[in-house]
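Fold this sequence, please.
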Amino acid sequence: MAAAASHRSHLAALRSRPGAKVLIVGGGINGVATFRQLALQGVDVALIERGDYCQGASGASSHMIHGGIRYLENGEFRLVHESVQERNSLLEIAPHYVKPLRTTIPIFSTFSGILSAPVRFLTHRSGKATERGAVLIKAGLVIYDLFAGAGGRNTPWHKFRGTKGSLAELPMLRTDVKYTATYFDASVHNPERLTLDVLRDGLEANRQARAANYVSLIGHNESGARLRDELTGEEFDFDAEIIVNATGAWVDLTNGSIGAPSQFMGGTKGSHIVLDHPALLAACGGREIFFEHSDGRIVLIYPMGDRVLVGTTDIDADMSEPARCTDAEVEYFFELIRHVFPTIEVGHEQIVYKFSGVRPLPRHDDTAPGFVSRDYRIERTELAGESIMFSLVGGKWTTFRALGETLGGKVLDELGVSSTVSTRGLPIGGGKNFPESSAALQSWFGARSLLASRDRLEVLLTRYGTRADAVLDAIGPNDPTLPGCAELSVAELRYLAEHEQLGMLSDVFIRRTSLAFRGLVTNELLVQVADAIAPVLGWDAAEQARQVSECARVLTEDHGSNLALTNA
């Protein structure tokens, strides 16, 4: 199989100098954040990812940047405090992708859960589902708001409303709602692109830093690590003093593959569906509905643009099987919608995308999945040839920057190197100088009005942040878009192939754009995009056809896409 040209250049950088002080294995958000942290300190660091960046759990999240109010019930006060502070920080340093998210909790009782909550807190077992009432939720939100800080807040304080006020704001809610509690968290509509931005920051900060996707760690001995190019099957040795295992739920499998077996992990599967459902979108009233389902699980209905995200499950995962959203999970999602919006009908035909991932949770034995700690820890192991391995156990999206500093700090200590640059307050990628006010946005669009239409500029700014200027320079003025898809052009696709390490056709639709997520991919578009990128990636006619066929399979079988639909 012909490998991508841009992939070959990054892979060639590893093969031409087959060694580094630190090798990070895993290109999810936490591995990438640690990579950036070390690159900023001038460390010779390399990163590999067996699939595409943000392809695992990082790309299968609920798209929330949140403090995790429900973790208070687990007693994880340190994690919640850190998460709320990191949420506030990301609103400032990554404003191109992280936005404020109004969140409403519908509440159907006043005092329920007061007695059972301490039992859950002490035992971490769910037991019989007991509804959380207004008093319990109020107490949690007060603590949550205090963790966000009394001064200099960038999110409003929470508010409670009674039945009348609640139904005035959300008239499709169950009529027996007693209260609603509304507070603010944050959303990340493009987690994959945020991950790429963090990675690119690391690559640009340090000329020694290298990263390649579609490369896996398959062994380790006295000579160092053994790596495999997953696009060609070629193998080579790579020497590193320290290996960082940031493969998430696959940490134990990765350790086992290099002769260092472990039993650190106990991941749980979380699935979601995306709906094209105007009535449900309207019922949400422009905010996430975050609530307790009848089984006691905390679930969500979340408007994203003109689509609605519904999730999530929390099921012990079999790591030998690919994570997919099952029919039973879909029925569960339909039930939870009816639980709060009983008059809204929803069917399978309104699903435009399904996705599932495995949370990198620690081994939890008898602890109920919902009560497993979302905090993280770092395990140190000695390997052959005097190498050291750090395994990351746990970790969540919101705290990636702080986690990167902590894990990076462990590595620096091992190397005897001091940290000289902090990522606290450091803008991420296209978030630098991002126009946030209405006036600033108008100015940004106006200054580029001769380069592209307003609609096209909005797409590019949403996709790249202020790095859109580099894309505009590459594609030229008034670049024509593809027939039937105003969000892509041949020139932009070639830019992606040259600069963003495309390895598979599916990378374009799932992780470089949000087209698959919104159900906007067709068989015709698959062929158009493959035609555009094939010359850059060195695909011959047979490989191009194989890529189209495999991408169609991934989108239909793994994600429930309907490729027969016309482009919107």
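Confidence is low (pLDDT under 50) at residues 1-5, 117-124. The radius of gyration is 23 Å.
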